[in-house]
Amino acid sequence: MSELPPSTLVLSELRSSFQRQLPESPGGISADTLFTELGTDSLDTVELVIQLEEEFDINILDTAAEGFRTIGDLIRYLEEQRRRKGG
Known about the structure:
By secondary structure, this protein is mostly helical.
C-alpha cells in the first residue's frame, strides 16, 4: 500500500467527496468545520459514509460516525483506520 497522505491531502479528498455528495455544502470546508454547518440530514450522512468507505477502502463504524463533530475528527479517524490497515 502507498504511504499515508498528509492531512491536507485527506482534507482535499474529503472536500471532493462532499462536493459530489452534498453539492450545496459550503465550499470553505476546513478541519474545523462542524458537521452541523453542512446542513446534512441522516440520509445524507449515511450516503456520505458509504461513499467515504468506498473511496478510502475502510469501514467506518456507526458508533464512530456518530461521534464526529468536525471534519478534523473524521480526518483523524480516516488516518487511523488507514494506518491500522497498513496504508
